[in-house]
Design a protein that fits this description.
Length: 87
């Protein structure tokens, strides 16, 4: 688990990257595509959700990549209606 300050720093860095890139890669899993289609969400909606992540949404991380890549994973669980999303 990361400290509160570490999560805040990560979210700030994420927002800076998203402001610069204005795009986000969504893993094309069937469950992801079904969720988006059922709600009529576009990539812009997902981008807005990620931009609005907060410290309260933090769940875990940074975690090492289980495939051995030199990167870390952060896990957030924002709520949408009655569903906790895995981001």
């Amino acid at each position: 688990m990361e400290t509160l300050a570490g999560v805040k720093e990560f979210l700030l860095e994420l927002r800076i990257v998203l402001a610069r890139e204005n795009t986000l890669a969504i893993t094309p899993r069937s469950k992801n595509q079904e969720f988006l289609a059922e709600r009529g969400w576009t990539s812009s909606d997902v981008l807005r959700l990620v931009r609005n992540l907060s410290v309260a949404d933090y769940a875990d991380g940074p975690l090492p990549d289980d495939g051995g890549a030199d990167l870390s994973w952060w896990i957030f669980g924002p709520r949408y209606d009655d569903t906790v999303l895995y981001v």
